[in-house]
Specification:
By secondary structure, the chain is an alpha+beta fold. It has four domains: 2-73; 77-179, Alpha-Beta Plaits (2-Layer Sandwich), CATH 3.30.70.100; 190-315, Oxidized Rhodanese, domain 1, CATH 3.40.250.10; 341-400, no CATH class. It is built from twelve helices and 20 strands. The chain has helices spanning 65-70, 76-85, 104-117, 142-151, 204-212, 224-227, 244-254, 271-282, 294-305, 361-367, 373-378, 383-397; strands at residues 2-7, 12-17, 22-29, 32-40, 43-48, 54-57, 90-98, 121-127, 130-138, 161-162, 175-179, 200-202, 216-220, 230-232, 262-266, 287-291, 311-315, 324-325, 345-347, 356-358. The chain has a five-stranded mixed sheet with strand order 10-7-9-8-11, covered by helices on one side. Strands 3-4-5-6 form a four-stranded antiparallel sheet. Strand 8 (121-127) and strand 9 form a beta hairpin. The radius of gyration is 25 Å and the shape is globular.
Length: 411
């Protein structure tokens, strides 16, 4: 038979005739038949619903076919539709661990294979220093998921942070597992200080005691737009940091007058504070502690133990929910009218902009989900115009315009 083979590394198309015995198999991904895989001579020939044809030498010299076959090639819109069509209840969970992982590629493949089989979706970072996961699991598969996770040597005994509340739609629409140099982008040279010399943990009850102690200092290790919608009483919240990397470098200077005081730091799930507490101790802070499990676990402890809730407003989360209610207060204001109280985040419907903003119901309805009149007009342009416009905007405008939010002050 005649088969057309595309050798991508050399951008050469070769047409060859093969008479060898053919072996065929079907790759199933999340119950969808995506590929037909045929072994022909020295080559693997693959084609799927898109009608294209890709091939690679069996030796793996041209393409890593294992990675190609495990990649979900559906479009973002298709993945979103499939996730929304899956009506099964899901449990949103986050967890992390600093642990030595010798072979990150093998570890990633192990996670991807099992979690795909269980129908999990989420965003997971793997590095030689450990794992950082935010994901959801079909509730009916939770026991299987937990049993498998706890059976892995690198993850045995790892604690989970279960979401305080689920949204109307899934928290994630696809499963992405990436290998990174670090599980949190902190911008620090870990070889310059002892990263294991972290501060002690604070329970929810101890955190409440710090809030009530006039001599204790509480510092929010999150970005300014996270603190805008929710924070602990009397917390110090930097106004001008939009990345953890920027904040971490300058935190010792910001807190220098409190070096000899009791300092408590907190973040969403605890991972950022692990490194931050070690960094502050390295910079001479005598008594640094951090909230165990972050705001998420704090909310569970408050409910289970009947403690007073010292957290005001919402906890911002980095998934489709964009927030979960912790306190009943609404402490932020709509960015559009700058009058009405609101703590609901939206992304501008103009995908070129995609700015994160807080909007009240009236403004969001009036503006149709756009952050400005200009974005609404741009979104009406034909795709042939929007594509080059998006490239120009991302290259020349977005990088030069820092993310701005309403100035924050300690309460």
């Amino acid at each position: 038979m005649n088969v057309q083979l595309l050798i991508t590394t050399k951008s050469v198309t070769i047409t060859s005739r093969f008479n060898s015995k053919v072996r065929q198999s079907i790759l199933i991904f999340n119950n969808l038949e995506l590929f037909c895989l045929v072994e022909v001579g020295w080559f693997w020939v693959v084609w799927g619903r898109w009608g294209g044809c890709v091939a690679t030498a069996r030796w793996g010299m041209i393409l890593d076919m294992n990675n190609q076959l495990k990649k979900d090639l559906r479009s973002r819109a298709e993945k979103r539709r499939a996730a929304l069509a899956d009506a099964r209840p899901r449990t949103t969970v986050s967890f992390y661990r600093y642990v030595k992982i010798a072979d990150t590629t093998e570890f990633r493949e192990r996670l991807l294979t099992k979690w795909s089989e269980l129908g999990c979706m989420g965003r997971i970072y793997v590095a030689s220093e450990g794992i950082n996961a935010q994901m959801n699991v079909p509730t009916e598969n939770w026991q299987q998921f937990d049993a498998w996770v706890q059976s892995q040597p690198e993850l045995t005994g790892i604690p989970y942070k279960i979401a305080v509340e689920e949204g109307d739609k899934p928290s994630f629409f696809k499963l992405t597992i990436k290998i990174r140099s670090k599980i949190v982008a902190d911008g620090l040279d870990d070889s310059s200080f002892d990263v294991t010399n972290t501060g002690e943990y604070l329970t929810a009850a101890e955190m409440n005691a710090y809030v009530e102690d006039p001599e204790a200092v509480i510092f929010d290790m999150r970005n300014n737009y996270e603190a805008e919608v929710g924070h602990f009483e009397k917390a110090i919240m930097p106004d001008d940091f939009v990345t953890f990397r920027d904040e971490l470098k300058k935190t010792p200077e910001l807190l220098k007058e409190h070096k000899d005081k009791k300092v408590a730091i907190y973040c969403t799930g605890g991972i950022r504070c692990e490194k931050a507490s070690a960094w502050l101790k390295h910079n001479g802070f005598k008594d640094v502690r951090h909230l165990k499990g972050g705001i998420i676990d704090y909310a569970h402890q408050v409910k289970e133990q009947g403690l007073p809730n010292k957290f005001k407003g919402k906890n911002f989360v980095f998934d489709e929910r964009l927030g979960e209610r912790i306190g009943d207060e609404i402490i932020s204001t709509c960015h559009l009218c700058k009058k009405n109280k609101s703590d609901t985040h939206y992304h501008c419907k103009n995908q070129i902009c995609h700015t994160l903003f807080i909007g009240c119901d009236d403004c969001v309805k009036k503006r149709g989900g756009y952050c400005s009149w200009g974005c609404a007009q741009v979104d009406k342009l034909p795709q042939s115009v929007k594509k080059p416009l998006a490239r120009y905007y991302n290259q020349y405008i977005r990088k030069r315009r820092p993310f701005q939010k309403t100035p924050l002050h300690a309460n």
